[in-house]
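To: structure subgroup
Subject: Chain for Friday's discussion

All,

I'm putting the inputs and outputs inline so they're searchable in the archive.
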Amino acid sequence: MFQIKALDKSCDQNIQRRIDLKTKPVGALGKLESLALQLVRMLGDEPTVARPAMLVFAADHGIADAGVSIAPPEVTAQMVANFAAGGAAINVFCRELGWTLEIIDAGILTPPDPSLNVTNCRLGAGTGPIHKRAAMTLGQVEQGLEFGRARVRAHHSLGSNLIGLGEMGIGNTSSAAAIMAALLDIEAKDCVGRGTGVDAATLKRKQMLVEQALVLHMSELGDAKSVLACVGGFEIVQMTGAILGAAEIGIPVMVDGFIATAAALCAVKMYPETKEYLIFAHRSGERAHGMMLEHLGVEPLLDLGMRLGEGSGAALALPLIKAACGFYREMASFDDAGVEPVVS
């Protein structure tokens, strides 16, 4: 379905040499140096960020009715309206930092008012309760992947060469935990965290319901698409499609926290080459996120103790992306500046 190529690394030695010969000790810019190398592979020898686009996918989850969150399912639609009105954290961060923001209804319970600036990519009115039945059909998975791909292509056609991913959906940490447990063969209790900040009793119930879902669907969890169908979320499927769509075009994707990383995990399981296009923005306060990052063998750019979602961490990492591109393009070499090389 997707045509994803591994990045060309034949010029890595030359790229690294250009980085090493900047007016600084070798390695002195830390993670920015490896980030610059990754970006040059995708954006070319004079890398520049153009029209960065933040895509926030929103959907509801049937498991939310079982009381796995401090918030009722209605909050998803209320927050989507808040996004559309410009009043959420992600709106503020996008305005301050220069992101183009799109809010996408992937399948919330109540469709947004038509007057709101929300893109309709609905797969249904919320997923099925995963502890009782499948979240969605394989047909909905395929459609969701295509929806995500289409949104990335739409922004790329307008000049975007960097995609950020965010989400909103009451109950989606339960779905992400189930995906993680299924794909990494980890016990549910190690994948389920406090999400929005539930108490101990709710956490225990959440763990029990995710375990129940995994047992119920055990015979069907053979690959990433099946896992998404059984225990996924409409917004997670569409984020997966957006990741794959960006990799297919050859542009980088800023991955936010726990939920977005669950989508990234699905994408990498489907097409391993996808990992090369992913930039992990921050380490979520959700306890299992670190385990996901460790499995993928990646180190995020930021660790601010955040667990908001919405793409907030991805949005905040944009200045680091621009800085990595900028120093690679504009920082003088020792020869350019007439500075004696620093040998470490």
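Points worth raising on Friday:
The chain has one domain: 53-325.
The CA atoms of residues 285 and 305 lie 5 Å apart.

D.
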